[in-house]
Structure formats: C-alpha cells, structure tokens
Amino acid sequence: MIRNFKIKLPILLMLALGLVLSAAALPLHSALAAQDAPSAQGAPSAQAAQTGLKGRYIAPISPSAYLVQAALADPLGESRYLNELQAEIRNNLGFLPFLRLIDARAVPGGLKLPTASEPGLDFERFRLTRTDNLITSIWINSNQVELRAFDVSNGKFMFGSRFDVESTKQVEEVADEFCAMFMQALTGRGDFFRSSLAFSKSDGPRKRDIWTVRPTGGNLTRRTNIPGDAISPTWSHDGRFIVFSHIDDRSHALGVWDADTNRVQRLRFPGNTVIGPCFMPDNKVAVSLTDGRNPSIFLLDHSFKKEKTLINSWAIDVSPSVDASGNYLAYTSSRQGNPHIFLTNLKTGQTARISSGGKYNTDPSISPDGTLVVFARQMGGGHRIFLHDLRNGAEKQLTFGPGSDEQPEFAPDSYFIAFTSTRSGSKKIYLTTRHGGEPRQIDTGSGEASFPTWGIPRK
Prior knowledge:
Structural class: mainly beta
Number of domains: 2
Strand content: 35-45%
Low-confidence stretches: 1-65
CATH topology of the largest domain: Neuraminidase
Radius of gyration: 23 Å
Distance between the termini: 13 Å
Shape: elongated
Largest sheet: 8 strands, mixed
Number of strands: 30
C-alpha cells in the first residue's frame, strides 16, 4: 500500500527539464492543437506541409544540455530490504540520461544524514556540489519505508510516500513507483517506470513466445506457451490484451492473450496473412491482412472482426503505427517501388512519404505525441535506427551499431525508444532515446529477444 504526501512541484525545474524532453513533456492535446499554429521558424517546410503538421517547432535539446544532479542519501532505520531498495532506486535512476547521481565523496560530510525530513536537513552541503535534488529514505519498521524528494536550491519538500515492503518483488515495485513519481515531478511524465515491454523470445526451433519485462529489467514473465512463432506483439491501452502475429505449420493467425483469463486464442482471417497488429487509442486494432493480391491495412473492431479498410493500394502496405490521438498512421509501403515509410492523416486521407533516403526502410513507430517517427533503414550489412521529425522534415540517425538495429518502438512518454539489436552477437532488446546516445541492454534472460512494444500492465 502507498500513502502519498502532498506534492509540491519545483516549477523552474519542470520548465528546464521540459526543454530536454521537448514535445514529449507537452500534454498531447497541446501538441496536436499547436499543429494549426504559425511556425516559430517561419513557413513550414514542404515536407511538413505535405503531412499537415505545421505546428510550432521546438528544437530537440541534447540530454547533456541540462543535466539534473541528484543525491541519494544513505537510508535510515533497519530492514532486511534496506540495501536492496537503495540499490534498486540507484539502478532505476541510472536509466535517465539527463540525470546524474552525486558521488558521496564529492559531498562535504558525505551522504549520511541525521534525519530524512526537514527541519534538520543540511541542504548547504549539497548546494556546494550544485545538487538539484535530494532523495531520502527512512524505515519506520522492518516492512515500511518513507521516501522523500527535496529541491535543494530552496530546501523545499517536493513529494513523499510511505510504502509497504514485504518481499523482493515489492522492493522492485516500490522502486519503480517512487522513480515514476520522481521523473513525473521533474518532467511531467513518469510512464517509463510504470511501463512494461512485451516482446518475442525464442525457445527452440520454430518456437517463439510472448514475454513481458519492466524496462529496468524486473518482473520477466512468459505470457504465451503455444507451438509456432509468436511475433510483433502490441499491448492494448487498458493493459488487458496483447495481440500478436502467430505462425505455425498450417496458417497465419492473430494471437490474443487476455490478462483477465491468462488464456490465448488464435483468430484466422481469409488470405492467411496477418502482419504487425497495432492497437488504436480506442482499443480497436489496425493490422495488415491480405484482401486480394497484396496485404492492406484494416481496422478490427473490439471483437477482433474486420470493420473497415484503413490503407489500400496496389502495393504492399504493412506495419501500422498510430499516435495517441488516433489521427495519424505511419506504415511501410512498396507503392513507390522499394519499401518506404508513409504517413496518412486518417481524418483527411492525406498521405506523404516521410523516409527520404535509403532503398529499404521498415518498422515505423510514430511517437504518441505525434511529432516523430522512428524506423529501421538497411545500410550495408545491417540496419540502423533513424528518426524523422514531422514538424520540420529533418532526419537523424540514432544508432550506429555494431551489428544490426531494427524494430524501434516509442515509449508512452515519446522520449525512450526500445529496439532489437544484434550488437552483442544475438538478438536482444536495447533502450535509447529520441536524442540517440549509448544504448542500454534490457535483461530478458536466455534466448533471442525481438519485437519490443510498450504497455501499462493491467492492475
């Protein structure tokens, strides 16, 4: 159980970090409403005008442009979980590229404090090291801890919570929830630490199943165990369903895992092709099915029955990805010869090609805030992850190997990106951000892991 204290957000810090996260920290309705506003850079580019995204452009700032420095004070009290929780919080905060934890040796007097709350906290020792935030913890008893965060510049309390901790699993849950609250206080979004990744994991020849794991590496769980290959999962917005493409010796099907029953069903469609399902904001599903010669993208209703056609051309149209508004659909199409990434406004039908280079571009993922698209481009002997900015048409390479990088997927906060890579020799899941930077591998256990997708698990 969690008992929340009153939250007081440091406004200046929120504004500063908001620049780092750029539009990822903007409320979705603000980002979309801005599309009709005049551009801050003058007239929109021809590319931006084609896609209909003419909004105010905020140039992405590198995470190093504003670095939050935080101090994690030594825990007070006694508990068998004391050191375990401290290590989990430290590990979690290490996933935030815009945050750095202060070394105890750099702080006059160190990180051991006589108290975990004001009055009595010595903020001056942390101001000397230009620390922005202080995190304290005190164990009320062996199974109950209070965690607090403070703004060092003014010595004011930001927020705090009391947590019950009675198992190692709860240690992970408490660390994730506290870090979500801390990230939300800094940036306005804490979804990263509340999310899980669904992915496909190999278990012998012609056998792949759907697993889930926290982005910090905890709670690794098998969700399916059926013959054949389960690939390309997508998580419903209410956390109840994971749907995926399933291939066995006889057919292609839409696999559906239900969190409420922990059961899996296979749904067949005419044409025997089911490629890359994607949940819409209203929990309907966009998926590529064969309706004639080549696959087109269809909308399935809440019963997973075909409702209508979304994208239909003479070419191959696959791998749909939709933003959080449900207005913009990114996908791969061969309509101009080689595979390229296209974007369609589902309200107007307006369509534009958004991958400008290369001859083989696949696996698009549009950011939930509707401003960016990441995709994989074939280069030489492998693939690399590229990012296209829908606001100004700029393109940027995010990954550089070694190995091959594919299947990028935006997190709910439009900041983190999960992708599949062979840089360690076999296929594994890695994290980067919309700014790029050194990827970090997620612990998915033994076996090759691929096709990552984000979701908020059903409670």
